[in-house]
């Protein structure tokens, strides 16, 4: 296996390493992922996270296991375990479907490796294409609002919604980015803030509940978010809190854009109701933990509801910005996301 380095994935000495996204931004720590159990543990803990990245990391590990001599049956089992690591982001399933086809080939070890590396290169290209298409929608002097983290940390390339924002910034069109902290796991406050800082993009961190008053004051020109799954009718699953932003944007006449690669499309999922939503642990809501330690503020017997994602109906989305270009509500009504 040739060496490989992206913002958050690394192959060195035939081993997979992931940048620990729970330790950022306080610490830049690389962790090994040598076994399926180890990688699934990292995925569950969101040490490796973001729809494209979980699919890419799973594909790379599978290729490395094949290179280390795992047989076809062992690889098939590993593939199914990885596929079940998280339920909502369809990129994981889409990438592993491609790896399954590679596994069916005669020279499967070589084919798996070639396919995993191809998925990485492809994702970089998809991100660049999304950034190109999306930046054409950003007007000069824009104050943009984003939620969760959709940058280089979550992909192999420049990111999706954050890639659009970064390119629009290079083009001199971004006055400010409002970064939702993104409770409960603070992907915005920890990761997007860090990435925008590294890129030199001006930003201000806000708590999720501040978006409404900013929109009411006319301080938000557009909302840009990513996606974990896009259903055939255009409904979008993304980080919890995305739906409320879309409702707010509609009420305040603020354009609401979803940026995603083709690997996020699920034409076989008819609508948002059919998207499985991951439920996560109570501890994420009763307090907060990180490299700084753990704090619990809720009563120890507090009951909790903690879905990791919500569904934004297509009717609230101004455009879907894909690697293939800008998809309008009329395109969606004409069935552009329906099975071909
Ligand atoms: O739970 P996470 O941090 O994996 O959720 C990530 C998101 O919801 C992102 O917006 C989405 O995966 C797109 S990343 C390019």
Automatic annotation (TrEMBL):
It is an enzyme of class 5 (isomerase). The keyword rRNA processing does not apply. InterPro entries: IF-2B-related (IPR000649), IF-M1Pi (IPR005251), IF_2B-like_C (IPR042529), Initiation_fac_2B_a/b/d (IPR011559), M1Pi_N (IPR027363), NagB/RpiA_transferase-like (IPR037171). The active site is at residue 228. GO terms for molecular function: S-methyl-5-thioribose-1-phosphate isomerase activity. Pathway: Amino-acid biosynthesis; L-methionine biosynthesis via salvage pathway; L-methionine from S-methyl-5-thio-alpha-D-ribose 1-phosphate: step 1/6. Catalyzes the interconversion of methylthioribose-1-phosphate (MTR-1-P) into methylthioribulose-1-phosphate (MTRu-1-P). Belongs to the EIF-2B alpha/beta/delta subunits family. MtnA subfamily. This is Methylthioribose-1-phosphate isomerase. The gene is mtnA.
């Amino acid at each position: 296996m040739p060496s490989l380095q992206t913002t958050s994935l690394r192959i060195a000495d035939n081993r997979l390493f992931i940048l620990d996204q729970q330790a950022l931004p306080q610490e830049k720590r690389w962790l090994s992922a040598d076994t399926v159990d180890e990688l699934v543990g990292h995925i569950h803990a969101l040490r490796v996270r973001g729809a494209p990245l979980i699919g890419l990391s799973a594909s790379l590990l599978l290729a490395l296991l094949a290179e280390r001599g795992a047989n076809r049956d062992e690889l098939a089992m590993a593939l199914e375990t990885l596929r079940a690591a998280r339920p909502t982001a369809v990129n994981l399933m889409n990438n592993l479907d491609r790896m399954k086809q590679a596994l069916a080939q005669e020279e499967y070890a070589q084919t798996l490796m070639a396919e995993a590396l191809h998925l990485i290169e492809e994702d970089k290209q998809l991100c660049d294409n999304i950034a190109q298409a999306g930046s054409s929608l950003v007007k000069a002097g824009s104050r943009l609002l984003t939620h969760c983290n959709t940058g280089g940390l979550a992909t192999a390339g420049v990111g999706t919604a954050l890639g659009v924002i970064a390119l629009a910034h290079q083009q001199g069109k971004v006055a400010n980015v409002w970064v939702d902290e993104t409770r409960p796991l603070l992907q915005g406050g920890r990761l997007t803030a860090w990435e925008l800082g590294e890129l030199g993009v001006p930003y201000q961190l806000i708590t999720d509940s501040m978006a409404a008053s900013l929109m009411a004051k006319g301080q938000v020109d557009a909302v840009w978010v990513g996606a974990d799954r896009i259903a055939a009718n255009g409904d979008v699953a993304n980080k919890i809190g995305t739906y409320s932003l879309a409702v707010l944007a509609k009420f305040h006449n603020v354009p609401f854009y979803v940026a995603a690669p083709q690997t996020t499309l699920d034409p076989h999922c008819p609508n948002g109701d059919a998207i499985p939503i991951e439920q996560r642990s109570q501890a994420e809501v009763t307090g907060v933990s990180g490299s700084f330690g753990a704090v619990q503020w809720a009563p120890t017997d507090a009951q909790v509801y903690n879905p990791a994602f919500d569904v934004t109906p297509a009717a609230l989305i101004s455009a879907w910005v894909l690697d293939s270009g800008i998809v309008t509500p009329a395109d969606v009504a004409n069935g552009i996301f329906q099975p071909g």
